[in-house]
Amino acid sequence: MVLNEHTRARGAEAPEPSSVGDAGTEPGVLEQDPVTFEVVNSALHAICAEMKSIIMRTSFSPLLSLSADLSCAVLDVHCNVIAQGVDIPVHLGAARYTGLAALKYYPAACWRDGDGVLLNDPYEGGTHLPDMSLLTPVFAHGTLVGFVLSRIHWPDIGGIAAGSSSVSDEIIKEGLRIPPIRILEQGVVREDVLRMILANVRVPSDRKGDFHAALAGHRRATDRVQDLCRRYGADVVTQVMADTQIYSRRLVEARLCRLPDAEVVREETLDSDGIGADTAPRIRVRIRKQGVRLVFDFTGSSPCVAGPINAPLPVTASAVFYTVLSFLGGDIAPNSGVYSGVEIIAPERSIVHAAYPHPVVAANTETANRLADMLLGALGEAYPELACAGSYGSACVYTMGGVAPGSNRPFVHYETIGGGMGATAAGRGISGHRVHMGNTMNLPIEGIEAGMPVRVIEYAIVRGSGGAGHHPGGDGVRKTIEVLVDDVQASVLGERTRTPAAGCAGGAPGALAGFFIQSADGRCRELVAKSGPHRLMNGDRLVMVTAGGGGWGQATP
After folding, report:
1. pLDDT for 100-117, tens place per residue?
2. Structural domain boundaries in the chain
3. Are 406 and 484 a contacting pair, CB within 8 Å?
4. N or C: which end of the chain has fewer CB within 10 A?
5. Is 200 exposed, middle or buried (0-12, 13-18, 19+ CB in 10 A)?
């Protein structure tokens, strides 16, 4: 809803109270049979994990099969999140937005068994264009009981650059934008729609394989939910779906009640947007904790910028939801009940609430991570015992594409690189790891070199790049890739080349990031944090150095 030129999102698009559970309703399975509640609830989470495993084992892209850049969730009939995998926060925090966008075009009453809706539109429930979301219904005895959602990262969805993750000044140049569209009709793929999509990507055979991997995962998850309904009854399963939200909400409220009320303000600038070298986009937030409510007000943040760091509202919400879960201990089951007491105020057409035609591809990987650092740092000012130093603030994405010699087959590669995590009162930060909004696995060097004509020259921890402190920050990494053919297109999306990860409680900041192209003739050119597409020739090297995390507490002499 729009109110005083701001968008206010309670939880995700202000769900009706009845759709997130109400402690005053009739006693549910949680009160009457807690054992059955726990069994069914755990089974729903296990279904998400099994669904992910199926997609990984049947996908064509190493980004999915080896790096696991995908997420799975089970939703109820109102598209509240019920259960989700231990997957990627920026994917999962937006899940309710995705479901609601699909229902806007295809109301619940028009769904049939075997239907499916596909979307990637960042302005219609998506995150960024490479993330393809598929929503399919689950019926039990002819009655709709919920939905299954997957969000998988396609290594390419068209656009001006191989890998669809580069620098451009409008969404049209980032790739094919797909609003919610019916891709399955009663179990049959709409081949006309699929052909249209595959005609706009660089390696259509691989993307078709990834799409069918998603279908396999959805079929397994649907079968498993239906098995639960047969074993325990659909009424019991749907009641557990409601009870899970009540349970998580109660845990959140209990922990918030133990903390004093507070209000904090924080403002940070991001690196260049890749278009204007001197741009310094600003994010400002006022966080108010009052009783069992949390308000995140981003009024005062910069308007949308020319480059691809503008965050759609679902991405901003994902960062907020991740922060809430982390701040409260990280052990509360994530679902829509957790977020029912969260309010997000984001000015429209700002860097935290992007609108057409502003580009957004780097928001998932860069802006979202800087948001998480910023929000955790702000809450740390009010609650120092829960503080976390800044992390490398990025996913450090690089993409490459070209044509393999001999086979004359096009190749596309997309990868994220770890960095330094901020230290906490509990211990030092992790080195060379994806943190906060991403949860992808390390891609083996053998997988990279087998898939395209490149050689990995170096992949190493940058020792000492984490900030000093009683607990030092995690170290960043250096990765150097040499291309072995001419005309390879490469792009980089990174952060913290200008603003280091802040220390906490007297800890020192981490070292800055850096990105370079070393030509075969020995010349070296420094890149801005977000740049591309670049043309690399045989023997050229792309060098990426990620930032170190901030230290916690003063170092012991």
Report:
1. 999 999 999 999 999 999
2. 17-247, 387-557
3. no
4. C
5. middle
